[in-house]
Design a protein that fits this description.
Residues 991-1007 have a biased composition (Basic residues). Residues 905-924, 991-1021 are annotated as: Disordered. With 1403 residues, this protein is an alpha+beta fold. Strands 18, 19, 20, 21, 22, 23, 24, 25, 26, 27, 28, 29 and 30 form a 13-stranded antiparallel beta sheet that branches. Strand 39 and strand 40 form a beta hairpin. The longest helix has 48 residues, at 113-160. The model is unreliable at 1-81, 172-207, 216-224, 241-265, 288-305, 340-351, 381-394 and 983-1031 (pLDDT under 50).
């Protein structure tokens, strides 16, 4: 029943029984209770029903309803509505509750719509890719049908010629018949597949070259037997020779002959192997080429393959020619083995026998060395023509053997006889940059006094090292019966005659000469030993150039090193233009490197048959007269079957003496499968680790108490004692260092490596247990097993070591400073009086204290200030005009003080000022004073230096000018005396506007910072550091600074724009662009390579889409797309070559699969601009040409990037790129030692009140953790310094700070929690369970500033002078929170430098 409300005639609402009331529609109720309606219109009113239940009628014009009051409230508000019974009101409230529930579900459902739409969009994208793939598949089907039709016609035509071909087959090519034992009736239909297979077979990619060589035995059943018999005979003759020479080689002369024959035997065998393989490849080429010519008119595709095969034929012919030449050159060595055996059956210990043996060795090395440059050139040509990383294994083995032989040749300690018309051009391996400021050379000399030519013309040339244009050089000569040292630094000759010991008074045996130059100062030494005692005569003469130059500027491509004479076509400078030397010469060292005449480029008129070398007693110049061996870090000794000299017993003992200035190196290593024993030097202390199959894993015995530091350039006796097969004892200098127990197990080894090991051993399964894989550099002697001596040079398998212990190689002329270190010496000097000093330096940091000295209040310091060099002498400052000396290159500083002037010279660019304090100048030093390099413990205005300092010298009144030996300094704080990890600027941090933000996915359009505060990172990229630097470890840290990583490989990803940028694009890029790169990834999408013009109309790219590699570029308005059929996101390394030619594009994968597509294009109209992107692109780039999923950064590792055959290594800018680490990983963000930082997005800021909590696992004891900086100079900085965590603030009033030092090391390889809480002027710092706080001055005007927050590092320009810790954090950070809000580094505004987001190398 309906009722009209308020007399208006409007129908009312009747609420009847529950069943009917629950039947209200959601839409009806939504309108009914919508407060925006002034009244309820009739269409939405449900009819009232009379079902025996209580009825409630509400007039639609009820004021309460019209004003939007809820119904259950308005029931009592309307006076004309009868009161409702309790049951009806409850029913009504139930309806309202359900309405609210429905509405909440509706909102939840609506919130999911965007996710569903996104998924549908992604699904639609995949359907588009599928449609594209289906389209390509349809095209392939169509092409296949056309090819099948063509092949069918060709088959019919071929069947007609079948009988003729069958009759002529044997006559055409008997080899083809042998290799192709299949019916010619099937040949046309499968020819394309065969041609591809043959091409891959020739290239060496389809089968290993060893398998081809093994198959050669099928040609001749007796061939293998003959070869084995021949090898057995050679080995028998060599063994017989070894027995004949055993016991008589006290000077190691004959051992050189044995080494030469061993090297010859290996190389000859492999060259013969390569020769046979090349012949097989040539026959295969001929086979395919002949068949190709027969069917050239049948299949057009075969014509293209035929052209390739013709090229391959030429390559293999070159290889055959080369190997034939090598075989001809080395065949006479087979006769040498027999001659050695015959001539030395009755060998006597006399000079003639030595001369004969040395002559044979020299002849062998000479023949090898003459051939090697030719072989290297040939191999290089083959490599350039072949796809990258696809060279046969035999060629690589020959290369390895050549490198081995070069190493051996450089250490052949045998002289050469010069007859006046002969000469040798030596091949020194040293970098000419190392010779600029300091040059040192030593050699042995013996005159042939009875030679009549020498009596008639006594003035003789000895050596010349310098440029071909005879500007900048050094040399030796005999003039007017004096030995004369001559050098020229571009101005005029300096001649230093040794007039204190005329040449005519020299003895008839070997003497040693050493010449040095440091800056302008030169020095010459002559040492004459006594044959009857250890006494020696020493003569010294000094001199200096008067010109302004102080550097020996040699050009790498224009430098020659002639000894004994010069070739006829070379014009020597007038001061050295003399007749050639007559007598014997033997090179010893050049700077720190051992060199030899037998490592030469060319030899002129050297006839060892008529003029054999002179014998030299190797112990004549060693005071102890004991045999010692020099290791240069590349070689090693091996003692095989050590139980032939002693037995493993209840007490097993190894003894050795070592002498080295280096920090790290392998001393002893034994390996048997997964079992091993390694004794290493790690940061100057011994590190012993071993595993004999223990159930508990490897055992570590480490000098953790630092009882015996052995890298002080002194001999130390090391003993390892294994007692009762269960206790390992370490003894140094007869002092017990440490011992450890293990499970009772005998030592399971037979061979022991000393000073290093072959690469295949170091890179085997034991590599993860080694502290490093660095070869030992220094001297060793007295190796014993069970108190039995071993002559390491006589052990077969020993490689790259030499007799003696050259002092020059043990001097620490170089020191590396890490920003927290310094060295100091106390000497009798007064540097504010008249003096001169200089040194080299290399750094990437624009600021730092290089040198410091004080006399009372007067200070003399040399420092870096914003890239410039500044000399401060008693308040007088001289600054270099150039401000780019923090470029990672070596620079040479000379400072001088005279009564008239202070002078500063950097790389021969001089600045000077008048000396206002003339009364001090010229005074003699009256007391011992201390000076510092690399920094100072005193409070100075400059931070300590980060970088390398080398070749320092001072002029003193009490001694001659000489290079400082830093090893002798009394104070050495956190300083390394070996290696200089300053390679190239990894992070040059500058303020710069531009495109250089590296944002995460989803934040592509977000601005970074403000216009004036955009931070970018130009750098020269991430180069691989030296191997020894990679294994460097902070002395306070458990983990090495650099986790194990793949060499020359870099990890991309973590952010959407992780990338490297390269500015150099070759001029001929538009005509031909050939790139090669190695990659590995698990990701299905990502950018690998991109380059374009400014408008991105012209472009070229390689990317991954759905796991497949896609090479794409434009040709005019046409887009060329070459796509692999297979997926390559399998986590394995793949080698990719992609080429854009004038009218064809090619994609070559792993040297096997060649995909190509032709196009019509005009190369002159195709131009691109820098930069070239690797691993990703800058924000906003490439979206015009590539789908968005593949525009994001490649997530994986890239290496070996080459452009047109040249390696590309120096990136101009780097963003979120780290070395490609090996081994397990875990969640976190890794800050690499190359430097870098993260800038948080603008939603995070550090104001007057905040709480920051995070966890760290450092790999260095010092570094910046967090930094915030405002424009008005206020800042907050949190850093570590020597394991202490400090928070330092400036709130506009002054600086204040608080620190926490843990009882245990913060750098112990474990995670540590750090929290900092700020409330205005109160700051609390928590590190694990340790807490400290500080109350600073209250700033009443303090305001919040939203400024960028830096994590892990900060640009140098934002650091104030009061912040002494300036280097970046090294290690992992995780669980970073600000005000209990998780911070995601993947959404950072900027990731600069070597930072890996979301992935940390596990400990």
């Amino acid at each position: 029943q309906s009722q009209a409300g308020c007399g208006s005639g409007q129908p009312g609402l009747v609420v009847g029984d529950p069943a009917h009331s629950r039947g209200l529609k959601l839409d009806d109720i939504g309108v009914l209770f919508n407060p925006s309606h002034s009244m309820i219109s009739p269409p939405f009113l449900p009819h009232a029903h009379q079902c025996g239940a209580v009825r409630v009628t509400v007039s639609a014009c009820c004021p309460a309803v019209r004003t939007g009051i809820k119904i259950h409230d308005s029931l009592y508000a309307c006076q004309h509505v009868p009161a409702l019974v309790n049951q009806s009101s409850l029913i009504f409230l139930s309806v309202l509750q359900r309405v609210e529930e429905f509405h909440e579900r509706y909102n939840d459902t609506r919130s999911l719509v965007s996710d569903v739409v996104e998924q549908l969009r992604e699904h639609n994208m995949k359907l588009s890719d599928l449609e594209e793939a289906l389209g390509q598949a349809l095209d392939y089907v169509t092409q296949t049908e056309a090819i099948n039709k063509e092949n069918t016609a060709n088959l019919q035509e071929s069947e007609k010629q079948h009988e003729k071909l069958k009759e002529q087959a044997d006559e055409v090519n008997s080899i083809t018949c042998f290799f192709l034992p299949f019916s010619y009736s099937f040949l046309p239909s499968i020819f394309i597949q065969n041609v591809s297979g043959f091409y891959a077979e020739i290239d060496g990619a389809k089968k290993e070259l060893q398998e081809k060589i093994a198959n050669l035995s099928l040609f001749d059943d007796k061939l293998e037997e003959k070869a084995m018999q021949h090898a057995h005979n050679l080995r028998r003759l060599a063994d017989e020779l070894d027995r004949n020479l055993h016991g008589i080689d006290t000077n190691g002369l004959v051992q050189r002959a044995i080494n030469a024959s061993n090297v010859y035997e290996n190389i000859a065998g492999y060259i013969e192997e390569a020769n046979k393989a090349a012949l097989l490849a040539l026959n295969t080429t001929n086979r395919v080429n002949d068949v190709s010519s027969c069917h050239n008119t049948s299949i057009y595709f075969a014509m293209l393959q035929g052209q390739r095969l013709e090229q391959a034929k030429q390559k293999t012919a070159e290889a055959v020619s080369t190997t034939v030449t090598i075989t001809q050159a080395t065949t006479p060595m087979d006769e040498n083995v027999r001659l050695w055996s015959q001539n030395l059956q009755d060998f006597q210990h006399d000079s003639a026998a030595y001369d004969s043996a040395v002559h044979s060795a020299g002849d062998a090395v000479k023949k090898l060395t003459e051939v090697f440059p030719q072989l290297l050139d040939k191999l290089r040509k083959v490599e350039q023509k072949a796809p990258a990383n696809n060279i046969s294994s035999s060629i690589q083995r020959i290369r390895d053997l050549i490198a081995q032989t070069r190493s051996v040749a450089s250490k052949v300690q045998v002289s050469m006889m010069f007859g006046g018309e002969s000469a040798v051009e030596v091949n020194p391996k040293i970098n000419v940059e190392e010779l600029k400021s300091f040059t040192s050379m030593s050699l042995y000399i013996k005159l042939q006094k009875d030679n009549p030519q020498l009596a008639a013309s006594p003035d003789r040339f000895i050596l010349y090292l310098g440029n071909k244009n005879v500007k900048n050089y050094m040399g030796l000569a005999i003039k007017n019966d004096n030995l004369v040292y001559i050098y020229n630094l571009g101005d005029q000759d300096v001649e230093i005659p040794l007039d204190s010991k005329p040449v005519s008074t020299w003895p008839s045996y070997f003497s040693i000469i050493k010449i040095e130059r440091i800056g302008r100062h030169g020095k010459m030494f002559l040492t004459i030993p006594s044959l009857s005692s250890t006494s020696e005569e020493k003569f010294i003469k000094t001199g200096e150039t008067l010109g302004p130059s102080s550097l020996l500027n040699l050009e790498p491509e224009n430098t020659v090193f002639y000894v004994g004479g010069a070739p006829p076509d070379f014009k020597l400078p007038p001061s050295l233009d003399l007749p050639g030397f007559i007598g014997c010469l033997e090179l010893a060292t050049l700077n720190d490197d051992v060199i030899s005449l037998y490592n030469f480029k060319h030899a002129y008129n050297i006839d060892t048959t008529t003029s054999p070398p002179c014998a030299r007693n190797k112990l004549a110049f060693t005071q102890s007269r004991a045999v010692s061996y020099f290791f240069d870090g590349s070689g090693y000794a091996v003692a095989r079957n050590i139980e032939r000299r002693g037995r493993f017993s209840q007490v097993t003992r190894f003894d050795i003496e070592v002498r080295t200035p280096t920090d790290n190196g392998l001393i002893l290593l034994m390996v048997n499968g997964s079992m091993f024993f390694s004794l290493e030097m790690h940061n100057g202390f011994l590190y012993l680790r071993y595993d004999f199959g223990f159930s508990t894993g490897p055992v570590l015995l480490e000098d953790s108490m630092k009882k015996a530091q052995i890298n002080d350039a002194k001999f130390h006796e090391i003993s390892i004692i294994y007692h009762n097969s269960k206790k390992m004892i370490l003894v140094v200098d007869r002092r017990h260092i440490k011992s450890v127990d293990n499970e009772r197990t005998a030592m399971p080894f037979t061979d022991i490596y000393i000073g290093g090991a072959p690469a295949e051993i170091l890179q085997s399964s034991i590599s993860s247990h080694l502290a490093g894989i660095i070869g030992f550099k220094g001297c060793m002697k007295g190796f014993q097993f069970q108190k039995k001596d071993f002559n390491l040079l006589e052990e077969p398998g020993t490689l790259g070591i030499s007799y003696g212990c050259p002092e020059d190689s043990l001097i620490s002329r170089k020191a590396y400073f890490n920003g927290e270190s310094f060295i100091a010496s106390s000497q009798k000097v007064s540097l504010l009086s008249e003096f001169e000093g200089g040194f080299n330096f290399r750094t990437l940091q624009p600021n730092g204290l290089l040198f410091y000295y004080s006399e009372g209040s007067d200070v003399l310091s040399i420092s870096m200030d914003r890239g410039a060099v500044v000399l401060n002498a008693s308040g007088i400052k001289i600054q270099s005009p150039d401000k780019n000396y923090n470029d990672g290159k070596t620079h040479f500083i000379i400072t001088s003080v005279t009564p008239e002037r202070y002078e500063l010279s950097v790389d021969d660019k001089k600045q000077s000022k008048k000396n206002p304090v003339k009364d001090r100048a010229g005074k003699s030093p009256d007391s011992i004073k201390k000076f510092y390099f690399g920094g100072s413990p005193l409070k100075t205005q400059q931070a300590n230096f980060t970088g390398c300092i080398s070749n320092a010298y001072f002029t003193r009144l009490d001694r001659e000018v000489e290079v400082e030996d830093f090893q002798r300094y009394s104070e050495k704080v956190h300083t390394s005396f070996y290696g200089c990890p300053v390679e190239s600027p990894p992070v040059a941090l500058l303020h710069k506007k531009g495109r250089n933000s590296s944002k995460a996915k989803g934040n592509r359009n977000k601005k970074v910072g403000r216009d004036k505060d955009k931070v970018s990172q130009p750098s020269t990229g991430l180069k691989k550091l030296y191997q020894e630097v990679n294994m460097q470890k902070d002395p306070q840290c458990q983990l090495p600074m650099n986790p194990k990583a793949t060499e020359h490989a870099y990890q991309f990803g973590g952010t959407a724009n992780s990338r490297q940028e390269f500015d150099h694009i070759p001029k001929d890029f538009s005509e031909r662009a050939q790139f090669s790169i190695s990659l590995k990834t698990h990701s299905s999408h990502g950018m690998i390579f991109y380059v374009s013009d400014q408008k991105e109309t012209n472009f070229m790219t390689l990317f991954v889409a759905h796991g497949r590699l896609i090479f794409m570029f434009n040709a005019g308005h046409q887009k060329i797309r070459i796509k692999s059929q297979e997926k390559y996101n399998d986590g394995l390394w793949h080698n990719v070559i992609f080429i854009r030619g004038k009218n064809i594009g090619r994609l070559i994968i792993d040297g096997l699969r060649v995909l190509e597509e032709a196009f019509n294009g005009n190369a002159n109209t195709w131009q691109v601009t820098e930069p070239l992107y690797i691993g990703g692109v800058a924000p906003g780039k490439a979206v015009k040409n590539i789908q968005i999923n593949s525009v994001y950064s490649f997530n994986g590792c890239l290496s070996n990037l080459q452009l047109n055959g040249r390696s590309i290594t120096s990136a101009s800018q780097t963003f979120s790129v780290t070395p490609c680490f090996e081994g397990p990983s875990e969640a976190g963000t890794y800050f690499s030692s190359e430097g870098g930082y993260v800038v948080l997005d603008e939603s995070f800021s550090l104001g007057l009140k905040f709480e920051v909590v995070f966890e760290i696992r450092p790999r260095s004891s010092s570094g910046i953790l967090l930094h915030g900086h405002s424009v008005n100079g206020e800042y907050l900085n949190m850093h570590m310094r020597n394991g202490q965590v400090t928070v330092k603030l400036n709130n506009g009033i002054r600086d204040f700070s608080t620190s926490v030092t843990l009882k245990q090391s913060l750098c112990d390889g474990r995670w540590h929690r750090i929290a900092v809480i700020r409330d205005a002027n109160v700051v609390q710092l928590d590190v694990d369970s340790e807490v400290n706080h500080v109350v600073g001055p209250l700033n009443p005007k303090a305001t919040d500033h939203r400024e960028p927050v830096f994590i892990g590092g900060v640009p140098e320009s934002l650091l104030t002078s009061s912040l002494t810790t300036r280097n970046s954090f090294i290690g992992c950070i995780r669980n970073f929170m600000i005000d209990e809000k998780t911070v995601s580094f993947s959404k950072a505004a900027l990731v600069s430098g070597a930072v890996s987001i979301n992935t940390c190398p596990a400990a």
